[in-house]
Automatic annotation (TrEMBL):
Residues 1-24 are annotated as: Disordered. The lineage of its organism: Eukaryota, Fungi, Dikarya, Basidiomycota, Ustilaginomycotina. This is NADP-dependent oxidoreductase domain-containing protein. It comes from Melanopsichium pennsylvanicum 4. Residues 1-19 have a biased composition (Low complexity).
Length: 239
């Protein structure tokens, strides 16, 4: 998940944007300059403590696409970040030359026998879960950058949600291009047919079709601003 700031002149929007700032480091996170996802990705599930070494080995053998997820039940997202750091410093492999994808995992896919390893609380609202997961993933995957402590960010996310939960969801303020679709699909926003499982590791095309259908319904009802539907559709399908 990659984050980018959205600018606005409205005071209310600026307040929301300030909450987003707490999840972004002083230096911008890297974006892949690959035009599309590689045909073959290296999956990091079930690699446990060997994740970092195996990712480096995969990169050494030519892999340029890495898949991980924001949950410790099956993944070590933090070890992927360590491998990326090593690739930059020891292999001279620029982060921008790697396609990196991570996924928000809802609470149903987390291991609650170890709640201390989960970036959100069981009772958090889905919107809060997504924001906290994004903040944790940014830190896990960019260990060479300096971030505000996660605990402080989590508190700000909770407070911002309490203050703004009755306001209309504004994708342009709260999220960057990539995060918009992640948060929208995960939260559901009360739209029919939208499934959280879209972001729990499935690549079932039917779920993505349902997601786009739900977005279209939202657009018809005026929930989304002009042009937002096409932007979301392009993100969903990687166009």
């Amino acid at each position: 998940m990659v984050s980018s700031q959205a600018s606005t002149s409205a005071s209310a929007a600026a307040s929301n944007a300030s909450a987003l700032n707490t999840t972004i480091p002083s230096s911008p996170v890297a974006r892949s300059r690959l035009e599309c996802m590689p045909k073959l990705l290296y999956g990091t599930a079930w690699k446990t403590d060997y994740t970092s070494d195996l990712v480096i080995l995969a990169l050494t053998h030519g892999f340029r696409g890495i898949d991980t997820a924001g949950q410790r039940k099956h993944y070590r997202e933090d070890h992927v970040g360590q491998a990326l750091h090593a690739a930059q410093t020891e292999m001279n492999l620029d982060r921008r030359d790697i396609w990196l994808q991570t996924k928000f995992t809802p609470r149903s896919g987390q291991d609650w026998t170890h709640p201390e390893l989960i970036p959100f609380s069981y009772d958090d609202a889905v919107e809060v879960q997504v924001r906290k997961s994004v903040a944790a993933s940014l830190r896990n995957l960019h260990p060479w950058l300096t971030f505000e402590p996660f605990d402080k960010v989590a508190q700000k996310i909770e407070q911002n949600f309490k203050n703004c939960k009755n306001e209309e969801f504004d994708a342009g303020v709260e999220y960057g291009d990539k995060q918009t679709v992640y948060a929208f699909l995960a939260a559901g926003m009360g739209l029919p047919g939208l499934k959280v499982t879209v972001l729990s590791g499935t690549n079932d095309e039917r779920h993505m079709v349902e997601a786009v259908t739900a977005v279209e319904e939202a657009c018809k009802e005026g929930t989304w601003k002009k042009g937002e539907l096409d932007r979301i559709r392009r993100i969903v399908y990687g166009e």
